[in-house]
Every structure is written in structure tokens, then in C-alpha cells.
Design a protein that fits this description.
alpha/beta; D-Maltodextrin-Binding Protein, domain 2; 2 domains; ten-stranded mixed β-sheet; 39% helix; globular
Length: 329
């Protein structure tokens, strides 16, 4: 399953020739793929699927081992990878929070730049954020919710899986475009905690990634009112976009990318990128990623991935500035 609208990447890729020596010598030992979150989440699952399918494309004896280094919304593992040697043997499977929203909203806790401090390799995939309410909520449309929040400033509460994360910035952007809405943000530790709180009625609504919301919506524990992408998602085609309900041009997605410490030799970066492209083109891998809530990205190069990260970094910085978010400053 492909989500062409999610990533503005080139349709055609250049055929880059690699030095024979680089092809012959790399890799000659296991490659560590660091996931800056606990095992079991969508980033972790996507990284394990990618590593499993990438390794054979790097050579008959190549091995890729996933290592979880969780903490601070992905910043702990990202910072650890940043200081590893740029030799292609330590990679980071990062998320929009780790390399997008955290640096924008929590600069003191994320002392790195997602573009200049890492070597881009490949976009892995992504998906929309869902505006979701409890199943018994009186709101049946996003328009109803927005109108009520606007009419009663400060009355309602909304939850996300962490201050400064992708859900938080999506919610602040939604309030901004809806006319400066006022409601109380309640951060939780992870998507599962958010959905549990929502089901119990502890909060009025949430903005959470599709991977976390999908099981609850399927089981009838919560109800999706809108998605943050410009197109509806094929898993829930009945749920409109925020653009459709009046927030014109609204588009924020969560994403995963594969990067390495700054200074990765271009030949190794292309070797890894080519292996990632082949893995993501595998239909079996794609189906497994979709099941985990990650839509595989179109083919990317190190150059297009770097450009993607730059656009996302600048977008989130702009949201933080326009919304007046002050966290950890």
C-alpha cells in the first residue's frame, strides 16, 4: 500500500555507481539500528521489518540488529546515535517526534539539529494523526467539536502522548487554524495511555497517531472525527480530513526516517539507501508495516531524505513560533 501524498519525493531516482571497494568491504560486521523508543511501538515494528528485509540486500552475511534506547520522546536514543562513529555501523530509526517536533518545541532537551547533525539515508514511512473522541462522546463531527471548543474557552481537555510530541503540535496547529481555540492540554506517557484515558472519559478528545488509535476505533472504544493528512486514509475512508471540515490546507503527518551520525561516507549512505528502497518495495514488508500503522514511503535517496527533514524541521519550528509554545526554554 502506497501513500503518495504523504511524502514529496522524486518519482525517478538517479543510478549512482558505487566504488568497488566500498561495495566489497561494507558491511563486514553487524549493523546496529537504534530505535529511540520502547519495543512494540510503530517505530520499533517498522524498524524491525526494515532491518529484516534490508540485510539480505547488503550482502549474504550482512546482519542488522535492532536496539531500543528509549527516553525523552526519542531524544535520548537520537542523542546517543549522534555521538557514534559515522562508519555505517550505527543507524537511527527516528520518528517525527525525535527529529521533528522535539527539536522545535523542546530545544533544551534536544541539543541537536535533525538536518545538520545527522546523515540522511531514507524515509521509511508515516501516516496521519487522528482527531479522536470517546465512543459515547456527544460530538459526531469534527466541526461540532471545533465549534463547541470555540464557544467555551478553557472548558475542554485534550490528551496526547507527550508535551512537544507530534500529537501536541498537531493539536496546537489545529487550534491555531480554527481561530485560536483554548483548551487544556493533558500529556500522557505514550499512545496506549492516551487511548485508555480517552476510553475512561478522563479527557474530551485527543490527537494521536493512527497506529495507536486504529485498534480502539475498530473495537468501538473511540471514534475518529478527522485525520490530519490531505487525503482520507484507506483503512478508515469514512473519516474526513481536517482540510475537508474547514481547516484548509491542514497537513501534518507522523513519519519515520533512517539516518546515521553526521559525516557518513556518501558511498555507504547510498548503499544503505538502495537496500532500504529494495526493502520498502517488497510487498510482504509493506503489508506488515501497514498493519503496524506505518504506510511505506515512496522510494527516496539520501538527498531527498535530507530535503524532507529540512522541510519538516522548518514546518514544526513555524508552528511552535505561531502557536507561542514555550516548553523547556
Amino acid at each position: 500500500m502506497r501513500r503518495r501524498h504523504l511524502f514529496a519525493l522524486p518519482a525517478a531516482l538517479p543510478a549512482l555507481a558505487l566504488p568497488a571497494r566500498a561495495q566489497a568491504t561494507y558491511p563486514d560486521r553487524p549493523i546496529s539500528v537504534v530505535v529511540p523508543f520502547l519495543a512494540g511501538g510503530s517505530t520499533d515494528i517498522a524498524a524491525r521489518i526494515l532491518a529484516e528485509r534490508m540485510a539480505p540486500n547488503l550482502g549474504p552475511n550482512a546482519r542488522m540488529v535492532v536496539e531500543n534506547r528509549a527516553g525523552a520522546g526519542g531524544s535520548v536514543g537520537s542523542e546517543w546515535v549522534r555521538h557514534r562513529p559515522a562508519d555505517g555501523y550505527t543507524l537511527l530509526a527516528a520518528s517525527a517526534s525525535a527529529l521533528g517536533t522535539n527539536p522545535a518545541a523542546l530545544p533544551q532537551q534536544t541539543p541537536y539539529d535533525p538536518v545538520t547533525d545527522f546523515s540522511a539515508i531514507s524515509v521509511i514511512g508515516g501516516g496521519p494523526i487522528v482527531l479522536v473522541v470517546p465512543q459515547n462522546s456527544r460530538w459526531h463531527t469534527a466541526r461540532q467539536l471545533l465549534d463547541d471548543v470555540k464557544a467555551s474557552p478553557g472548558r475542554y481537555t485534550w490528551a496526547t502522548s507527550g508535551a512537544g510530541g507530534i500529537g501536541h503540535l498537531t493539536g496546537e496547529y489545529m487550534k491555531l487554524l480554527a481561530g485560536g481555540l483554548q483548551s487544556e492540554h493533558v500529556p500522557y506517557r505514550g499512545g496506549s495511555a492516551v487511548m485508555e484515558a480517552l476510553a475512561k472519559g478522563e479527557v474530551d478528545y485527543s490527537l494521536e497517531v493512527l497506529a495507536s488509535t486504529a485498534p480502539h476505533m475498530r473495537d468501538g472504544l473511540s471514534r475518529g472525527l478527522a485525520v490530519s493528512s490531505l487525503q482520507r486514509h484507506p483503512l478508515f475512508p469514512e473519516i474526513p480530513t481536517l482540510d475537508e471540515v474547514g481547516l484548509k490546507g491542514f497537513e501534518i503527518i507522523t513519519w519515520n526516517v533512517l539516518v546515521a551520525p553526521r559525516g557518513l561516507p556518501p558511498a555507504i549512505a547510498e548503499t544503505l539507501s538502495r537496500a532500504a528502497r529494495a526493502a520498502l518495495a517488497d510487498s510482504g514488508a509493506a503489508q506488515r508495516m501497514v498493519a503496524a500503522g506505518v504506510d511505506p514511503a515512496e522510494a527516496s535517496t539520501p538527498e531527498s531524505t535530507s530535503a524532507f527533514l529540512r522541510r519538516e524541521r522548518d514546518k514544526f519550528r513555524d508552528i511552535v513560533q505561531r502557536a507561542g509554545i514555550r516548553l523547556g526554554r
